[in-house]
Specification:
seven-stranded parallel β-sheet, 30 helices, alpha/beta, 4 domains, 28 strands, Rossmann fold
């Protein structure tokens, strides 16, 4: 019988005073048996080592050159961090094993050398892997690939990056049939769903599930203000001094924010309260590589006491000195909170300490719901979906760049990836047709004829220029067009969205990278800035709002309907709910409560939907259109994650008529087609599908150029080929991602049978948090706080009166 661990590994564990954990040995056993494996284990359980243990054992027992294991990470920072933490034990064991990283930040000369002489272990991202597949030498590079390890698989599987990775795995399996697939995660609610996603042909019986031993229960608390829990807001900015006090009493603290804009704002607030001048940094995806690497290095060396960050550091980063995590605002999901909590201590047998700072009273309930869900080990469900056809088009182009392909063989390979297992012959033929000529309305243009079919039925690239075009433009993440933020000496600080830059003029100021910056010059690609001490505003970023999960929404609704559990809440939150139940009613689980009331010459309708901001925004647009048709003279709407408020000159007497389900068939279609929503979705699928390039040799197109190109094609297709593949893909994206239409449909179905309309003579307590938001978006951030507090208090006084 083969020993469980080779001697160098046994000695290394002994030297550390450690013993391999059961799940690590189980992963080794799965590897020795040649089984695919899914490891579900809490943060700090040594998941990464467990994933690599079979690789290290095989390379110790049978040393070999060439690529043995691919490690795929959702974050560049995570790949770099894993490299650091893997190289150390390899060096300590004296093993001749090379570990390298390959991401978009890797120098081109190293990328070329990696294809010619790859390391035994290569750490990469889905996008970089897809590019590797596009080279003819990929067949040689991956010929003896033994294992692919997918870390934080929950961050991939249900998204387009997961579609691309799933297709890449199918290609690798075709090149190296014996390749093992391994996936790691701490937050998997549906192991069988992930087993099916991981397995060839979706056959879950091929995948062994390894369950890690449970770790210490996290120590999570909710930070309450020194006064009362605020009525409004979602940032927790009021607690800056309290957060600094926590940073002062811990070794290293990560301060998580849900958006990049909020991270910049919180950093400024903390710095103003930082009387001890503690070293504090900021990290988010829009900062330059140099700025991010500098902060990551300082954290790894223990030089920072606090780091304000976003989802860019959500997963896997192992900084041992982090002993506290603070979540600014509610986390919006139990799984996300658990993931972030795990960044503290990062050890299985030590409780991770975390503090949640709710932004308002509803967010207090949401924070409490998240803590309860974590205590109950209840994670948020994942929604597996069919793969995007725009992603499939990009993948097929990558394969064609490497070598011509047979249509039947390619279809079989694609169908072995779970997201595409139900792909029809007709859909596949339409994708090939789209790549070969752009579709019926575009086939007259040579620039869209990227594939050609030879007489023997083999498909190949029609001209070498399309290979270079693909490699320059491949990728799944389509961000809003960005402008570089630079000092006059050329030093780059990062990027801001073009839409925000368009609101700036010379001498305007904004906060970025933790500094107040003054605009000196604006051109098509750069904002030239200088540091200043003048007051500034915060850049805005589109699409950054995280959706409230259904799990947490249902728990909050349960709180409202259970007065017996209100004793757990602070006095002011309990009073708020108590007076609501006396003045109006509390919505029951599954029920849609709609309140109407007059206030200062306007009429308000507030619906407590609990379906998240995205769905409420969409519904608000639809309802105000319908109110306009009915002559109610709507003035506008405002939404948060819990409620939607519409206000008008005339009162809504019968809300049920507004919420009828046909609103999705009539107003929804008209609204989407008449708005920029579908055009924006089309721009994304056109870029992903390769119809429009973002970059040309030697230069990158500006956002205006890309938008002009996609808008022009969009208008042509709408007119001449409304059934075009990419138009359908854009519709699917717009419905699923941008409007949260699934939750919207559920809400309208529920409204038909459960709506309860309560007509009041004045504002209700439950309505105050959403009504305070009216007008907020039009006021510069940071300047309206006092006015909003005064308005909130005035509304609250009116709402909380019992007479």
């Amino acid at each position: 019988m083969m020993p469980p661990l080779p001697q160098p590994l046994t000695d290394w564990f002994a030297d550390k005073g450690w013993a391999p954990r059961r799940h690590q040995l189980d992963m080794l056993a799965a590897g020795r048996a040649g089984r695919h494996a899914l490891l579900v284990a809490p943060t700090g359980a040594g998941k990464t080592l467990a994933g690599f243990l079979p690789t290290l054992a095989e390379l110790i027992e049978s040393p070999a050159e060439g690529l043995h294991t691919l490690y795929v990470s959702p974050l560049k920072a995570l790949a770099v961090d894993v490299q650091r933490n893997l190289i150390t034990p390899i060096a300590e064991m004296g093993l001749d094993i090379r570990v390298e990283t390959r991401t978009g930040d890797t120098p081109s000369d190293r990328k070329l050398r990696q294809r010619i002489k790859p390391p035994q272990i290569l750490l990469t991202t889905p996008e970089s892997l897809s590019l590797l597949i596009s080279y003819p030498d990929s067949f040689l590079m991956f010929a003896n690939l033994k294992t692919i390890v997918i870390d934080e698989v929950h961050a991939f599987a249900t998204q387009k990056r997961g579609d691309l990775l799933s297709l890449a795995m199918a290609r690798l399996q075709a090149i190296s049939p014996g390749m093992r697939r391994v996936a790691l995660s701490a937050t998997v609610a549906d192991p069988d769903g992930y087993r099916a996603w991981l397995a060839p042909d979706g056959d879950i019986d091929l995948v062994t599930t390894v369950q890690g031993e449970p770790g210490a229960d996290p120590d999570i608390s909710i930070l309450l203000p020194q006064g009362r829990v605020p009525w409004s807001g979602h940032s927790g900015r009021y607690a800056a001094e309290q957060v600094i006090a926590e940073i002062e009493t811990h070794r290293t603290t990560l301060v998580f924010c849900n958006t990049r804009a909020l991270a910049e704002l919180i950093f400024q607030d903390l710095w103003k309260a930082n009387d001890l001048q503690l070293p504090i940094g900021i990290h988010h995806g829009s900062l330059s590589l140099e700025a991010r690497r500098k902060v990551e290095s300082a954290m790894a060396d223990g030089k920072l006491r606090g780091l304000v960050c976003t989802a860019s550091l959500d997963m896997g980063i192992d900084w041992g000195d982090v002993d506290c995590v603070i979540q600014m605002g509610a986390p919006k999901g139990a799984s996300r909170l658990l993931q972030r909590i795990g960044r503290a201590n990062h050890r299985l047998d030590e409780a991770s300490e975390a503090i949640v700072v709710p932004g308002n009273r509803f967010e207090y309930l949401e924070a409490r719901a998240a803590l309860d869900a974590v205590a109950d080990r209840e994670l948020d469900a994942d929604d597996f979906r069919a793969g995007g056809l725009d992603v499939l088009a990009q993948h097929i182009m990558a394969c064609a760049c490497a070598a011509p392909f047979d249509e039947a063989a390619m279809l079989a390979e694609v169908r072995s990836a779970l997201p595409y297992s139900a792909l029809t012959d007709d859909q596949f033929a339409r994708v090939l047709g789209f790549i070969s000529d752009g579709g019926y309305a575009l086939k007259a243009y040579d620039k869209f004829k990227r594939l050609v079919r030879d007489p023997d039925g083999t498909w190949r690239i029609s001209h070498p220029k399309f290979i270079a075009q693909h490699r320059l433009n491949a990728g799944i993440i389509v961000e809003a067009t960005m402008l570089s933020v630079r000092f006059r000496n050329g030093r780059q600080l990062g990027r801001v969205e073009e839409g925000f830059a368009a609101t700036l003029s010379v001498r305007d100021t904004f906060f970025f990278a933790g500094m107040s910056l003054e605009v000196e010059k604006i051109d098509n690609e750069d904002l030239i800035v200088r540091a200043t001490s003048r007051p500034a505003r915060i850049p805005s970023y589109g699409g950054a709002r995280m959706p409230l999960t259904t799990n947490l929404a249902n728990r909050v609704r349960g709180f409202l309907a259970d007065p017996g559990g209100w004793h757990r809440f602070p006095d002011d939150v309990r009073e708020w709910l108590d007076i609501q139940s006396k003045r109006s009613i509390m919505p029951q689980p599954g029920q849609l409560l709609v309140e109407t009331f007059p206030h200062e010459g306007r009429h308000y309708m507030v619906a407590y939907c609990f379906e998240g901001w995205n769905a409420h925004q969409s519904l608000g647009m639809l309802l105000t259109r319908r109110m306009e048709t009915l002559g109610l003279k709507p003035l506008g709407f405002v939404a948060n994650d819990y409620a939607l408020a519409c206000y008008s000159l005339d009162p809504v007497m019968e809300p049920a008529a507004l919420f009828s389900a046909d609103i999705l068939e009539d107003e929804f279609v008209d609204w989407v087609q008449g708005s920029h929503l579908l055009k924006r979705a089309f721009r994304e699928v056109a870029v992903i599908g390769g119809l429009v390039e973002r970059q040309q040799p030697g230069k990158r197109k500006t956002g205006k150029q890309v938008t002009f190109s996609t808008d022009l094609i969009y208008d042509v297709l709408r007119r001449y080929e409304p059934e075009h593949l990419l138009l359908k893909a854009a519709w699917a994206d717009a419905r699923a991602k941008m409007t949260d239409v699934g939750r919207l449909a559920d809400l309208l179905d529920r409204a038909a049978g459960t709506m309860l309309h309560v007509a009041l003579d004045r504002v209700s307590p439950l309505a105050v948090p959403v009504l305070v938001m009216i007008g907020r978006e039009s006021v510069p951030q940071g300047l309206a706080d006092d006015a909003l507090l005064i308005e909130a208090e005035a509304l609250a006084v009116e709402a909380m009166r019992l007479d």
